[in-house]
Fold these 3 entries.
Entry 1:
Amino acid sequence: MDSETLRIFSAVAAELSITRAAARLGRAPSNVSTRIQQLEGELGIELFSRAGKRMSLSAAGERLVEYTARLLALEEEARHVVSAGGHAGGLRIGSMESTAAARLPAVLASYHRQYPQTHLQLQTGPSRPLLEKVRNGQLDCAFVALPADFGGLDGLSELGLQGCAVWREQLLLALPADALPAEGVGAIALRSLAAFPQGCTYRGIAEQLLGVPGSLEWRVQEMNSYHAMIACVAAGTCVSLLPESVLMLSPAHGQLQTLPVVQADTLLVWRQHYATPAFERLQALLPEVPDAPTV
């Protein structure tokens, strides 16, 4: 089970198609098919379920996907560290949508100007899934906000992770222009919250603030972008919690009512002892919240 075979397996697992994986890898489909069959023979188990031309991962294949990502990431890390950065390598970065929109463009542009040989990959998502992907090696690092029930930095350490706060965000409750009564949040007539899917730290903060858990009145509209959330708030159909830095990017920011709620730190999180030159160069470009603890 060499690294090249694992790369082939990873491509087939991602595409669920021998033909598409072969095109992605620049190989003949027959070669890709043979390597998968050899891997299954070596392991003594089917990694894919086949129904005609359709493929899906078997239970064993799904387990191997995670290990493959970790093994290939470790190989890449070793090459980069041993060559002291001479091997261009890459850096797989995870980020909350808000950080990707408001904070990362300038940082990543600066990184690319200084180190154009390093291949940067960016993947966005809620904080909890991003933490899991860093833990299992699918990402090298991620920008996240720790959930309230996560256990803080001790929770990171228990997962074999470490991190430091790089930005502090002011979170605002955004409401339609005429929706904020003098009595405050508890008197808001709207009972619809626009938020990312479960796993988003800011959603958890908003739900606790508004009393959503256990309520029969509140409805959560799950969305995948802040643009959509702001548009729905402007249309008068819901409220939403979002960072001030994101709201200020929208032309609609002056047309909404906002209520400051709480400040939340954005952390850069990585696996303990992960220290490639590519990652250290990213760290050097980031600010640090002066009074925030680190682990």
Note: The longest strand covers residues 161-175.
Entry 2:
Amino acid sequence: MLPELKIAQLRHFVWVAELKGFHAAAEKAHRTQPAISLSIRDLENKLGEPLFEKRNAKTAKTELTPFGCYFLPKAKELIAHHDRIAEDMTLLSEHKTGHLRLASVPSIASRVLPGLLHEFVSGAPDLHISFFDDNSDAVLKMVETQKVDFGIAHLFHEEEHPDKSFTSIWEDQIGVVCPKDHPLASETSLHWKSLRQHRLISNGTSRLLEDSEASPLLGHSQFYVSNMISLIAMLEAGFGVTTLPWYAFPQESTKLSFIPLADPHVVRRIGIVKLNNKSLTPPAQALVNFILAKTV
């Protein structure tokens, strides 16, 4: 017979593992330390293996056994799945119309979606929305793990994602971003080779150059910055230059210039990504239809 795993025990296990101690976990759970120890012991009995190494009196840290290390991500996955279902049911019990989860790349999240979502929710005031913004890879991962109903992203190498459908909506050109007083700022367009003599900062969107003749630039860049806020701050400080799609260029910046990359001419396509074998919830499908009606 399979063991009946209790969510409370799984939470206790995760807290002990992450906080490196039973005492800290007990404080977080608002329980006594013996109660947490008993909870963990019962969980270990159900699983048939110890989750934590025997405690060394000389150290306050609690370490996972190899079995515990393997079980930790599984426990987190079970907790997350439980919490998503509990959250959805709570919203329904409160007579709300549902819960919509979506993720988007930051450029669309900041420049396009605010207006669209504002208009959409005006007709559904009780709809609860969870909105995540991250790079394309992270958005695709959230779609795959069903953390979100659908994503808005660029789909690198579409043939490598047979489990997903992609509906292209927005297109923007790749360009070079540099300070306004930089030598490149006076150009109207640029060839990729002209970037070699300047300090190049790569970022999450640099992958768009992979399949173009500008791909050597990826190995030429001295720095990689994943966070857009940090990237803009470094550019404004004159640290170097980077390539960005037009939608990702901070139009509010008074210190930076965007020069189109003419050779090669690289275009990013952004659209709606969802799983092929999973129907969207009614709120999610309604939002997809709304976006398509407003933009395509």
Note: The mean pLDDT is 90.
Entry 3:
Amino acid sequence: MKILALESSAAACSAALCEDEFLLAQSFQNSGLTHSRTLMPMVQSMLEHCGHTLAEVDVVAVAAGPGSFTGLRIGVSAAKGLAWPDEKPCAACSTLESMAWCLAHTGMELCAVMDARRNQVYNARFRSTGDGLLRLCPDRAVALAELAEELKTSGKPQILVGDGAVLCYTTLKESGLDVRLAPPHLRFQSAWGVARCALEQVRTGRLTDAASLSPDYHRLSQAERERLAKEQNKGE
């Protein structure tokens, strides 16, 4: 089972080709260039240099959310374009779960966090089993103070993973929690994690198609919130 995975949910951008759990190739950039300029050339170059073609791919996977609204749209649009011509099945992967897969070997509790702004983080919690993940809560946008109280209830050491890990570390430490930063090379979003998350969807029959593939933003954009506020004000 060859899985082509795309990750463009935050500042970094990556693509990976995996065969089941084995990583065949991966390309990663954190250059500050827009993903609309880097993602598709990255995919094309990676496939060319590892000696594989899109025709050999069985599943196209993408980090579908949460994350940057623009980044998610770019990634999902690219995945739809790659999958649609040959009607390849798709995997819409949780960005947070994909990050956690990079630490599934640790046997510890994992706290995946991304900066959601407005004093919130996008978060999901997992228990790593050594060869898999046990989800402890759904993906959500949660206040950092609320997350701190939840982690106190758990009482177990936490590995922070994600581009919001450093943001959360000091606050959670000051709350008396035993939190640890994932090492830098495993901390950020990567397409390998997306591919590993997608493999679980393959095994449990949860794939979709290009037509149904869509981002999962987890909350309204600022523009949508402002529009709704204006409509409510008009109605009063």
Note: Residues 2-97+190-227 form a domain with the Nucleotidyltransferase; domain 5 fold (CATH 3.30.420.40).
